[in-house]
Amino acid sequence: MFPPGMPGFFAPPRQHGFTRAIFVTLASTLFGLSLLANMYLLLYSGLFSAQANSVSEQTVVDGDPKEKVAIIPVRGIIRDETVMLVSRWLRAAREDANVKAIVIEVDTPGGDVTSSDEIHYLIDKLRKAKTEHGGTFPIAVSMGSLGTSGGYYVSAGADQIFAQPTTLTGNIGVLMPRFNLSGLVEKWGVAERTLAAPEGGYKNAGSMFSPDNPRDTKYMQGIVDQAYDQFKGVVKTGREGRLKASLAEVANGQVFTAQQALKNGLVDQIDYLEAAYKWAATQAGLSKPTVVRYHRRATLLETFLAESSHVGPRNVNVNLQVDRSAIDEVMTPRLQYLWRGE
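Above: the chain sequence. Below: its structure as tokens.
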């Protein structure tokens, strides 16, 4: 009935073969998911963070690579992000034995009190690290269009401050922006009922939804005054022996032109960036300096977006959203070394 050698029935597949197939399928799936996850993390790291965290140097003047003057930019409103960026550059300068002097390239209206103070501290820390064995490490500042408030706070500790002919600087003072909406909320029948402990304390002092309270205003003014005293102390120490006007005359919140700042002793020289790095090189005893500017390397994603912007016209959907941090900034009083005249 059946050909020789062929059994008279078809044997069912072995059970362990079916189990092996399921196991192989699951293992392959898990391996594929793991591979995709690792590729995603690698891609994310490359696109968003790896390059952004690295320090790049742009050569301004070619010279002896062992005689470096590093230019470190401080631009825009000074915030936490500025501190993180400048901190990386200052650390790179500290770890590079070839860096013999720095120029802080300032073009900022100032910013947060704490961020400005931290950059000032980091610059001083770099100086101490570079001179701990008895050497010299000149620090110059070259101001662009603005070196006001927090920008001047950052600059005050430099050995030499250069301002361009069109620079605006000074504005030594403190802001704590506050907005009071109590009249508006009363008009709409809204009343603040915030509970705070201790009862009758200062936890809710300065609330924008409650009418001004003289006690609370005095309390808040005391905080601002302490930040102001800190600013004056930095200027007094940094410009000791070089101020040509009294501290009270220059630390009144006034913005000065470069010529006025020179007359008052807030800056040492009216000239451009080139003069600043040549001065730093001379003070460091460099014969043929290499001048480099530190900058943040663009991420792969930023590079891709920049390149794609030149491909041609395309439809762009703009989705405007209110950032919660922006709301928090308005709602929360914040000390600022900032000029708001622009």
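Confidence is low (pLDDT under 50) at residues 44-52, 300-306.
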